[in-house]
Specification:
This protein is an alpha+beta fold. The chain contains 12 helices and 7 strands.
Amino acid sequence: MSENTRRRYEDACATAHAMDLVGERWALLVMRELMFGPKRFSDLRADLPGVSANVLTQRLEGLEAAGVLTRRKLPPPTPVQVYELTDWGRESEPIFQALGRWGARSPLHDPTLPFSASSLFLSFRTMFDAGRAGDLRADIGFCIGRERYVVSIEHGTLTVERREFDRADVIFSGTARSMAAIVYGGAPIETMASSGDLAVEGDRALAERFVGLFPLPERAIRRAPADANVI
């Protein structure tokens, strides 16, 4: 019996089949990193520092064989190979959003761990509160390392694009981790800016309003085992 055969659940349930396709360690995180567009192998390794080159290669090959992602060469002047989700692969985003909301309620969740740009912007699409946004209309630019993103809010909806931009109402420059500290950790913008961890250009009042649009769900209660006090 081959290794691939042993890994299968041999269960007709579509959830079991989905786990056959993406249940290997790192597979879902590879998909997460491609949610906003194609990336090179080196970019994926940088965004997933805990994965080895060998394991990443295996996951990319497995996801490609399953039809979740594809690879192609960019045209000149940068003819490098990139990986990107297929249309069907991108349909998985609601799965990440549901898992993200559920995982954020865990009493054991540690939001101070490393956080990639894809994680940050997927979390924005997941945690966005349209009620808090009200009639807000704004374009927020982000410079995260070499990557550029634009978050647009209009009519109670939020969209995210990974692209260059000439201008925006507010521009945040820094790491995804520093942005997460402000949005989810309650760190004051002024404190992060004065420490050099983050730079903010544009409408400061709008910046303050923006970071308050993503409330986390209430944490689940961690109950002691039923027999914890039994001697």
